[in-house]
Amino acid sequence: MPDKPIKIYGLLFVSALFFTSKVFAETNISMLWKAGTAQVVITPGENLWMAGYAARNQPSEGKIHDLYAKALVLEDSYGSRSVLVTSDLLGFTADLSNRIRKELASLLDLTKAQIILNASHTHSGPVLSGALVDIYPIDKEEWDRIERYTQTLEKKIIDLVIEAALNLEPVSIYAANGTARFLVNRRNNPEQKIEYQSELKGPSDYSVPVLKVVKKSGDIKAIIFGHACHPVVLTGYQWAGDYPGFAQLELEKLYPGTTALFFQGAGADQNPMPRRTIPLARQHGITLAAAVDRVLHEKMKSLPSSLKTAYKEIDLPLVPISEKELAGIIQEKEGYPKQWALRMLEERRKGITPLNTYPYPIQIWNLGGLPLFSLGGELVVDYALNFKQKYGYESFVLGYSNDVMAYIPTVRILNEGGYEGADSQMVYGMPGLWSSEIETLIFKGVDELAEKVDIQRR
Predict the structure, then answer these.
(1) pLDDT of residue 63
(2) Residue 54 buriedness (CB in 10 A; 0-12 / 13-18 / 19+)
């Protein structure tokens, strides 16, 4: 938790600033947006286990570049506020996310609807407390180090948002979409054959959504951009933000004094290809930065200063695996599937009832008429394509937000099986597969929230 005595002056200032803004807005609703930004290095100070690849067999060894968490605080002409946190992490757990959002609610009077905690999903970041418990041979001492890092990370992110809130200034905000095409649907295009294929198969979302936040001086204060693609170019043991990290570094080099924030989209079944070298990670990052830079120099839509936010958690049904099936996995498998099955079976023998539903977070912002959809878990691309077809192709879609608990497949992928449809549930420690109701329930929940924030179907 942040050091409240030290921060009390700053927090009082933030509260007074927000109150004054609301009063002023009542008499001058034409005032501009306000925005504040901040960033902090979150690179572990020691070698820890890295999150993302089950094949890793040791902790990290040094870094390619630092990991960051970054915050953007927005306030509209009516005093409504929102916070976007982006991070070079595999994903926030529910426990960590809930603690951060609860503290921000206390300190800055924010609801869950107003806060998005997005992870880039880099596979070259640290394991966090309570995550990936069946994958790696981590002993108690190493888990203790991971727990200490997670506590430090939590405090850094809370302080980061407070710092951004203290830096609010009048801005204009613009939006547009660019394009980048280094991503490939990995379920339909095997990596080992990619250089010989003359055409790609399967759905993908090539859009590069961009927000430009501009100061009164005309200088760019912040660049917020995303892409729906797994950050899995790098497979080694050095800390790095993967291609999103290189893209942010490139944009901040092109625009000195600007904060570049990357958010991950619905890229659960999308990989950058080719991959597996540092030069390729840099190439894809520079390619993405070039796509953003092009958008910044072309006409972008000016967003009116109006913000509406909505959030809910829906109970997604799970179908637990039977004890007989667990016994079969233990007999036939090795590695994390066996470790997961052993833990599941042990819990049942202790009388622990497996979850039959999971509280899944969905969230929508209406940013001056721009729909921004934010969903938890590893969201496959079909969801983004559906939202855009319904609500407009200019829509922004974020996965990996607020809680990364599992892959979020469509019914088609669930029926097809494979890693995204079945095996990944063991990686995340879930007690079973998602029910076939998953797709219908998510679409229904999103439609209900869209209505609440006045986002209309096209």
Answers:
(1) 97
(2) middle
